[in-house]
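Supplementary notes (optional reading)

For those who missed the lab, this is the record we used. Protein: TetR/AcrR family transcriptional regulator. Length: 232 residues.
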Amino acid sequence: MAALGSAVSPPFVGEQPVAEDAASCRADYAALGWSAITLRHVRFHWCRASAMSAAQRADARENRERIVEIAREAIAGSGELRLNAVAKSAGVGQGTLYRHFPTREDLLAEVYRQEVEELVALAPELLSSQGPVEALSRWFDRIAEYARVKRGVFAALETAVWKGLSEESHGPLGDAITLLLDAGKAEGTIRPDIDARDFFILSGYLTRLDEDEWDSRARHLLDVLLQGVLSR
């Protein structure tokens, strides 16, 4: 029987995945041949530690997601991002915020990257349940929100930083709009001469909107763009 102080690390750390449930813990320690008393003590403490670790990881993920969401709302609203206000609204301490995002720029960049990821994921999701034209229209709804957040993020970042973010997002966003356009072209509802580059150029006018006219003009101008790509 293996001794409690043996070099074997419960439950087989480094050889097998650490067990995260009670049944797996019981099986692992039984395999070592430990006594029932030893098993009860070690199983209790190790499984409790594993459960606490899993809970802590889940809490950390939730804190991070909440911080990013609060920051996004601030940028899309007032356009001003104050870290102390974000931490307070997210219900976390300043230390927690800085562990996830050491600088204001780190948080701004994450907000933008998440916006891009959501937009890219939305394209195939919309096409799975709607026709190409309706899917493109719904995607444009989300583009209006994204463009507002993007403007706020880029305005708060150094030129080199926002240019880097913009360059890294062109590929994924280009793939998403190409997917939507190609679906419409195959159906015959989207003009065959329109591509992703046309979209990027034409949607660039959103950056020219003043803040006080965003709500009244942003989606309207995207509707004009949508009508322009439809086949006649």
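If you only remember one thing from this example: The two ends are 81 Å apart (CA to CA).
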